[in-house]
């Protein structure tokens, strides 16, 4: 298949091409559950930590912090992105359709994620769930399923400039290391970046939620800095904590752009229109200084 015919395919056509059969899908889901639950032990008083943040914020570090807080790391990680590589043609999808990667693989990984989550809850395992926080109805449904759990919500407050630079650096690192990369589009990013404010507000109103916290990045990925909890109330609410955290983070983002990121730009592949669009947005954000000055 030549490059032109590949790029001419629509998202719908690509999704159909890589859709798995029902039996293969079920078998992969069973395998995932066996792997993810292996070595984990059910507990009498389980805890569910729900980490939400837009792409590029540092959810992986937040997950790492949470993972280390459970004795003997006795917690099941439920993360759709971590399950995507179980698709038998994942490398092909990533190489040929990096701009469609997330949506194509979601059609399988979302079902695997739901199944793993249901199995973990039914079995009374500790859980760390990671997501962007866009789907408030899904999160509310999940929380209401976990009546016997202590529910902890954690969110990241990271400026859009920092997030977008991280998205590009991750993509370029994947290109170097694997020969292909997964790129989050501007549209996908900004939907998550905007909608999390509404989501965190709704979650804070839920009686089922025991603790809600907001973090900014720390010096190390797995040591983020807490700037808010609903117990100590450093801000009026979690939504305002995210807004203020993002504003404060802008100075860090600007400094990183000037000292590091700007020097890296000439090494980037810029092989996708979507990547150039993100780079253009980064450049414009860096120039609009007054927007985030307090």
Which residues sit in consecutive blocks of at least 5 with pLDDT less than 50? 1-6, 290-294
Helical segment count: 12
Helix content: 55-70%
Oligomer: single chain
Beta-strand content? 5-15%
Q: Report Rg.
A: 20 Å
- Give the count of structural domains: 1
The major beta sheet can be summarized as: 6 strands, mixed
Q: Identify the strand order in the major beta sheet.
A: 2-3-1-4-5-6
- The CATH class label is Alpha Beta
Give a description of the structure.
The structure is a single chain. This protein has one domain (3-158, 186-240): P-loop containing nucleotide triphosphate hydrolases (Rossmann fold, 3-Layer(aba) Sandwich), CATH 3.40.50.300. Helix content is 55%, strand content 11%. The chain has helices at 3-7, 11-18, 22-37, 59-69, 80-83, 90-96, 101-122, 136-145, 160-178, 186-204, 238-264, 273-287, and strands spanning 47-52, 76-79, 127-131, 150-156, 211-216, 225-229. It has a six-stranded mixed β-sheet, sandwiched between helices. Helix 3 (22-37) crosses helix 7, helix 9 crosses helix 11 and helix 10 runs antiparallel to helix 11 (238-264).
């Amino acid at each position: 298949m030549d490059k032109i015919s590949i790029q001419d395919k629509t998202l719908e056509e690509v999704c159909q091409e890589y859709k798995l059969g029902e039996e293969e899908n079920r078998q992969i889901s069973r395998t995932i559950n066996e792997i993810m639950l292996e070595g984990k032990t059910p507990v009498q008083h389980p805890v569910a930590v729900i980490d939400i943040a837009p792409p590029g914020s540092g959810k992986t570090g937040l997950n790492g912090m949470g993972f280390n807080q459970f004795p003997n790391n006795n917690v099941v990680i439920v993360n759709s992105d971590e399950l995507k590589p179980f698709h038998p043609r994942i490398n092909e999808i990533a190489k040929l359709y990096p701009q469609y990667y997330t949506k194509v693989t979601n059609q399988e990984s979302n079902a695997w994620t739901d199944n793993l989550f249901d199995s973990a809850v039914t079995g009374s395992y500790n859980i760390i769930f990671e997501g962007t926080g866009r789907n408030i109805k899904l999160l509310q449904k999940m929380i209401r399923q976990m009546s016997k759990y202590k529910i902890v919500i954690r969110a990241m407050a990271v400026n859009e400039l920092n997030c977008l630079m991280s998205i590009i650096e991750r993509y370029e690192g994947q290109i170097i290391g694997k020969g292909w990369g997964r790129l989050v589009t501007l549209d996908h990013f900004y939907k998550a970046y905007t909608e999390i404010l509404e989501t965190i507000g709704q979650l804070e109103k839920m009686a089922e939620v025991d603790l809600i916290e907001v973090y900014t990045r720390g010096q190390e990925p797995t040591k983020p800095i807490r700037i808010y909890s609903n117990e100590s109330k450093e801000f009026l609410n979690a939504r305002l904590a995210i807004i203020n955290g993002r504003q404060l983070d802008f100075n860090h983002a600007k400094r990183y752009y000037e000292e590091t990121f700007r020097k890296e730009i000439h090494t980037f592949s810029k092989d996708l229109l979507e990547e150039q669009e993100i780079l253009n947005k980064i450049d414009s954000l860096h120039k609009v200084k007054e927007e985030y000055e307090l």
